[in-house]
Amino acid sequence: MGEIATTFNSDESDHDEEDESDYDDNHDDSDDDDDDDDDSEGGKNIPFWKEHFLAIIIALFASIGAHCYNEINNSPPKSLKVSRMSNISFCPLEPHHSKINDRLYPLEFFIPRDRFESLGEFYIADMIDLSIKTKEEQRVALMGHAQFQCLIEQHQSKSNDVKVKGNTYFYKEPSLAEIYPELTDQEKGSRPVKSPSNSLINSSKERRRNLQQPPLSFTGFAAKFVNMNDKPVLLFWDGKGRNENSKKLVGEIPPMESIGTATMAGHGFHITPIYDPSMVLKRWVLTPDVALVFYEPKGLLVDNPILYAMYQKQLLNQAFARDYTVASGRTWLANFPRSFPVHHMQKASYIGQEHHVGDMTLSVISVAPRVFRINDFLSPGECKEVIRLGLEEGLEQSALHSNLLARQNKDNSTRSSTNAWLSRDTSPLLKSIYQKAATLTKINSKLFQEFYSLKAEHRSIAESLQVVRYKEGEEYIPHHDFVSPPINDHYQPSRFATLLIYLNDVQQGGETRFPRAVNNYNAEGLEVTPRAGRAILFYNMLEDGNFDDLSQHGGNKVLKGNKWLANLWVSHYLFSLVFYFHH
């Protein structure tokens, strides 16, 4: 009999260590006897649907599962099985329940009871991904699934509560004292802290300053717009003039889907029907506290069953987002439920921390966001060869993507550069770059290869290598690499990590900037100077599965000469060529 992956366990302190299985199969497969205890009813006649409520629910979800299986039958590699409910519990927790590690803390959330069916669908989708496909297998698995049983019990409870209580974890940002341990008094017996080999702090005097973060000059943040309508809409930024002539198209949002963009406090946005961009349906002025907004027309009636199911999932996402923001202090930018990252994440506990992987050294240059510098990732000759291959492929104007379903947006005021895309099979050098990237990230190198199937949808966790040229005067304003996945996609694919490789020394300018990097010395955040062969690795996700808003980054204007670089994006899951448009 198939097993359910239930990894919600307060004792799992090393959830992000590299593991081929990715999840623990700790479900007891034995069938529990049905406990039809009717004592509370005093032996009275009970309506059939109440007496057999659990069986009816199980049968209903099994029928839903059979339908969903047709959408999730392109089996991924075994090490990438996804369980979106694995880090969620609806059972009462022990009094000693606490954080998983130094960064993941317990989070209570509350979901309206009428969202129960949507939660059940997620359990079914998890089973299908774990090869539990037949109705009978799903029925037996659900009957023995402890978390699902607890959800059923809460739903059936006769209490006055209109919501069910769930438990998961949220990521807590490190303090400056944790980021700069050498600036604090070391506790007796604690390990000595190694100073950075190329310190970001200019002098010993500065290193002894009080732990205070200077006010950052950049005030941007990520925003997410959800279209709770059964019709597509267009999202516009009002622009600096806030009039019809200044507005700029962000993208089209399909029904019950979302789109994300980088913005700043006070910026205005509005949505319109796709058939009339002059008809404003809704306006917003965003702030960091109002960065997740939902558009739902008054009197909305959704007749399409598929759209109605998506609507229910967005309501579920909206309810969780409120509790997540209260606990963590950050906007929930992902879709609920979302599993913890399925790939290994290199530790970034303090500035100057180093990891040695093969002949490569990763130096932590930022903890929040998590950024590493790798010198000599490529040789000078290899850098020149990548540039040659990019020129041979042909350079085109760079495009912008605000979500997986949005139209490409080519806006020279945001990104002024040209690029080419090189597949892994372009040359032996490209294959070696992908192999080094797998080694560096401690991810199974097989996942960087392409998987072919009849549907040819989920192909690889690594996109084609993007070779980019910035001419003098060109730049890329701060943005995010993660994208909003479709609400109905079980795997919730998005960019997990970015490997950026510099291919030449820039004469002046062109630094990669993380304007919101937490630090105690620079109001401009973190800037990395381009050097031929140098690479930086940063993560676009947090350990709790949310997207990292602080990973916002940009390319400073090239003041003299040209700037060449290569981007290799690694997805949380096997990305779909249907959604990533390279050309």
Mean pLDDT: 80
What is the general shape?
A: globular
| Count of helical regions | 10
Q: Name the poorly predicted regions.
A: 1-44, 66-76, 186-204, 404-410, 452-458, 577-583
Q: Major sheet, described briefly? A: 10 strands, antiparallel
Q: Separation of termini?
A: 45 Å
The total of beta strands comes to 25
Look at the helices and sheets and give the structural class. alpha+beta
Q: Over all CA atoms, what is the radius of gyration?
A: 25 Å
* Helix amount: 10-25%
Residues in β-strands, percent? 15-25%
Written description of the protein model:
The chain is globular. The relative contact order is 0.13. The model is unreliable at 1-44, 66-76, 186-204, 404-410, 452-458 and 577-583 (pLDDT under 50). Helix 2 (53-69) crosses helix 3 and helix 2 (53-69) packs across helix 4 (135-143). The longest helix has 24 residues, at 305-328. It contains ten helices and 25 strands. With 583 residues, it is an alpha+beta fold. The strands form six sheets. Strands 10, 11, 12, 13, 14, 15, 16, 18, 22 and 25 form a ten-stranded antiparallel β-sheet that branches.
Record keyword descriptors for this entry.
583 residues, alpha+beta, four-stranded antiparallel β-sheet, 10 helices, globular, disordered C terminus
SSE blueprint:
Blueprint (H helix, E strand, L loop, with lengths): L47 H4 L1 H17 L34 E9 L3 H14 L5 H9 L2 H11 L6 E9 L4 H4 L24 H4 L12 E8 L5 E5 L10 E6 L4 E7 L3 E6 L8 E4 L6 E4 L9 H24 L25 E4 L2 E7 L4 E4 L5 H14 L2 E2 L20 E5 L5 H14 L16 E5 L2 E6 L5 E4 L15 E8 L5 E2 L2 E3 L11 E3 L6 E5 L13 E3 L2 E3 L2 E14 L7
Parallel strand pairs: 3-9
Antiparallel strand pairs: 1-2, 3-6, 4-5, 4-7, 7-8, 10-11, 11-12, 12-22, 13-14, 14-16, 15-25, 16-25, 17-23, 18-22, 18-25, 19-24, 20-21, 20-23
